[in-house]
């Protein structure tokens, strides 16, 4: 018995072309595809399809605009914020002074040997990202990631110059005319100006901003500054203008990690398939009761959720690696549901636990903020933040480092004693000149002699000085009688005491003859 099946019209993809449908069982075999198409089907790589995000209005779009404005304002304004650190100190609030090897962050000043604070800050940021993802999915990617912020800005410029989605598609698919060339040139010029402002602002974080701006205006910039501005300008222009969602999908590792961070109680962008399926276009004469009788749901297959997505995915296929959790598909769907007289929320931020409960006719499950993983992440962040805070409060103003000469290992003097030479560095991390007293212990009968600043003067009182916020370098000689040595190598401790009682110690060794 022959049966016939009513065929649905093929869906349109994001560019408007029809998808290829597999023939039904029993149909005549389709004609062989052209040779070029067969060769393309054997390719290991899928050709990139450009995404044309459509303009959308709604709650999440407004949140994204607000986040974009705040983050860009912070980025461009922060280098100009001043912070008084006293005389002869930089007054830029945030400054990564690589030339002088200092990192200034408002009241915090870090030296190279205090890199562990930066390590702690990076661990704290990573845990914060873990916590945010476990609570609300890729909310960082959708609202605060620099790639997202600048891509949003570039798409807005593109829409302003070339028009909305449909007009941009027609413009790209059409031939090259004077109008098309003019729009493309104008768009890329604005993109380059934004990229130049981005690269220029980034350089301001590494040197005094007013000084560098004056050098820019006088065309006196160094080749290094010009090189970094060009590098950041090019990367901003390419990544935000052309790579866009490919950065999030292929370059960023976070999409691969998100599945380990979220669970059934995480708030993620969710399509309520129990309410929306099956999908079908809404006919003008069709009532919702008739749709229900035909087994159709609230989704009218308008593809608005796909057209507004900056990643070009269909959220109705479920959570995907490319989804950045921006929620623009929610705004697009809510707008359509309002127009057709259906409740909003067909696409919404929800948990899997609640979706299962509602789909099976149960009571809605409230969002669980406190869960084992969120509690663990929070406790770890509190411990690390507390450790960093205590460390900054107790941060010493003095640090020393000692490097023993390796050639020669030791010198035997004419009176039979043995001498070792050391390079001794004092880091005065205060804004005042300091005087110190140096002593050694661990070797019986050891005595000190000091030669500083490249001079040959000997000082047997072991008094050293260091200028404010500077590293003072001295040449230290430790001499010990051979009878006081207990082997070829034995521990030696340097002890430096400041005038106000602060103490720094360093453990080294003293080398002598094997016998």
Automatic annotation (TrEMBL):
Keywords, ordered alphabetically: 4Fe-4S, Electron transport, Iron, Iron-sulfur, Membrane, Metal-binding, Transmembrane, Transmembrane helix, Transport
Membrane-spanning parts: 63-81, 115-136, 189-205, 225-243, 375-394
GO cellular component: plasma membrane
Residue ranges with Basic and acidic residues bias: 11-24
InterPro entries tied to this protein: 4Fe4S_Fe-S-bd (IPR017896), 4Fe4S_Fe_S_CS (IPR017900), Cyt_c_oxidase_cbb3_FixG (IPR014116), Electron_Trans/Redox (IPR051684), FixG_C (IPR032879), Helical_ferredxn (IPR009051), Ig-like_fold (IPR013783)
Start-end of Polar residues biased regions: 1-10
GO molecular function: 4 iron, 4 sulfur cluster binding; metal ion binding
Residue ranges constituting the 4Fe-4S ferredoxin-type domain according to the UniProt record: 311-343
Residue ranges of the region described as Disordered: 1-39
Family matches, as Gene3D superfamilies: Alpha-helical ferredoxin, Immunoglobulins
Compositional bias of kind Low complexity: 25-35
Designated name of the protein: Cytochrome c oxidase accessory protein CcoG
Species of provenance: Azospirillum brasilense
Gene name linked to the record: ccoG
